[in-house]
Amino acid sequence: MRIVSLLLLALVSLFLAAPATCLAWSGRVLELENALFMTVDRDGEQQTVRVYGIFVNRPSHPLGKRAEEYSREMLLGREATFREIKSTPKFLAAVVSQDETVINEELVRMGLAWVDPAIKHTPYGLTLLTIQGNAMKQKVGIWDKNKKWPVEAVGRAGEGGNKGIAVMPRKPLLTF
User: Fold this and answer.
1) Under a CB-based contact definition with an 8 Å cutoff, are residues 109 and 101 in contact?
2) What is the predicted pLDDT for the residue at 144?
3) Dihedral (C-alpha) 100, 104, 108, 113: value to the nearest 10 degrees?
4) Can you spell out the DSSP letters for 2-68?
5) Rounded CA gap, 75 and 31, in Å?
6) Beta strands at 24-32 and 37-42: parallel, antiparallel or unpaired
7) 151-153 vs 167-169, strand pairing mode
8) Distance between CA atoms of 141 and 98, rounded to whole angstroms?
9) Residue range 7-53, pLDDT digits in tens
10) What are the Cα distances from residue 109, in Å, to 35, 74, 100, 102, 169?
């Protein structure tokens, strides 16, 4: 009975790990909409890709601008590897690598991005949270101003009847 349980556990583990490794492909980044969204040439077809598992400030914010500049410098016009995590009708979310550099992780490491709370219980989410914890300890980027948590602007003043800018505070998921 124990052998059957271990075999079943091994099969389930392989099944869960397989999608992340089987859906990797390469393509040339044609255009960056911002630090997280890009248009990629995938075997002659254009595909919209979102950098998986992280958020960045809007490009109007200095750190949002730095995140966009970093993504542009590392990816625009270059071949990159995309490990698909999930797909939607509008885009696919992927772990994006350029040579040996994993863009998702570097943006978090530099304090230019924070981890999406929706992925905190996934293996890759835990990896990103560990990197984020180190960035918080080193007080880099978004973590360097008296531990104020990142905010994401939901709207702009005067847009759609808004009188001000609504923000959603991001609190730490784990402290290290």
Assistant:
1) no
2) 85
3) 150
4) HHHHHHHHHHHHHHHHHHHHHTEEEEEEEEESSSSEEEEEETTEEEEEEETTEEE--TTSHHHHHHH
5) 9
6) antiparallel
7) antiparallel
8) 22
9) 454 444 444 444 444 589 999 999 999 999 999 999 999 999 999 99
10) 15, 15, 15, 10, 20
Whole-angstrom CA distances from 33 to 5, 13, 43, 72, 144 are 47, 36, 20, 10, 27
State the chain's maximal CA–CA distance in angstroms: 66
Length of the chain: 176
- Taking alpha carbons only, the member of 95, 159, 153 closest to residue 127 is 95
Select from 104, 105, 103, 85 the least CA-distant residue to 94.
85
Confirm if 27 and 80 have CB atoms less than 8 A apart: yes
Hey, what's the torsion of the CAs at 68, 21, 91, 28, to 10 degrees?
60
Query: Is residue 152 pLDDT above 70, yes or no?
Result: no
C-beta of residue 53 within 8 angstroms of C-beta of residue 104: yes
Q: Which residues contact 63 (CB under 8 A, 6 or more apart)?
A: 56, 57, 111, 112, 141, 142
CA angle 173, 92, 40 (to 5 degrees): 120
CB 96 within 8 A of CB 28: no
